[in-house]
Design brief:
- With 359 residues, the chain is mostly beta strands.
- It is built from one helix and 34 strands.
- The strands form two sheets. The chain has a 24-stranded parallel beta sheet that branches.
Length: 359
Amino acid sequence: MLPSFFLVASILAVSSSAMNIVLTNQTDSLADVSCCMDKSQATHPFPCCNLRSAVAFCQSLSPSSQCSIDMSSLGMSLVDSSLGEIVLGSGASNQISVSGPASIESIQRTGSYSRLFTFTPSFDNASLSMTDLTVSSFGSFSAGLNGGVLQLNGNCLVSILRVNFLGNAADKGGVVWVNNNQRGMVFDGCSFNGNRAVTSGGSVYAYIQVYFLQVKNCQVENGLATGITQMDGGGFMFLYAHNVYAKIEDSTFNNMLAYAVGGVLGLISSNSGLQILRSTFSNCRATYGGVGGLYTKNDGFVVDGSHFTNCAASKYGGTFILYVSNANHVLSDSTFTACQAEIAGGVYYYSGTSNSEVK
């Protein structure tokens, strides 16, 4: 059973005592703490408060404080790759929210590239919220960079609401690479278009201990993972984790591709659970498992109320290939239309023991 706080953790509230910073400058520069202040004190706001300086201001505050960065009046922020990523995890940048409506765009300089944020929390109640944003062109489609937009190392409650991720790239996790996070991550009402990974996780890569990860009301298209080994894949998401609970619901996936395993999803896990509910998949392709490739032990896997159209694998499993051991799988109230593979156009069970139910 998935944790009960799946129902309540999708929105992070910022308290009334939070520091609220309004950006006044679209361009990027070296961080200058003196450019920014709480909006209640900014009778005449400094014109130099950009995103990098606002984060630096948050870093100067107590880690028990919450810091809210408001981009709505500015509409856009540019982040220069030559200045590097913006680092979170000190002071009040441990509890930070960034909201629009606005866009954040990477300026790629010759010979340099960077992600948007790296976050290594140093506070027990760390949190990150991103709301009503468009985030584009971060990272690089090259080996060595994990997390094109965000790399998260440690425990942090992450809420990504109504954010559009366009054309971001990395080695693993074209948008997000997350490691050892037992507080959870939620994507709600987001869109992902044209995000890529050299090896695995065109948009999301989760590694080791990740307690829960939820994708709901999202639209995902044109995702790509080009790794060629049987440990690579996931045109949208790759979970290499234990004790992970993942849930995909009320979402659509179109034109997804992995060169190896899982056009949408790759999963290597034990003692975990995955639910796919009321979602649609079309034109998803891979060598193994057109939609998903799962290597699982002591896991639960549920597909309910979902629809699969024109999904294909050049080898096994037009929709799913399952390498299973002591696992429970339920497939119910779902349709498969024009899905095909060399072997098993629907679901291919490769080995191991499982309790499977189709209804």
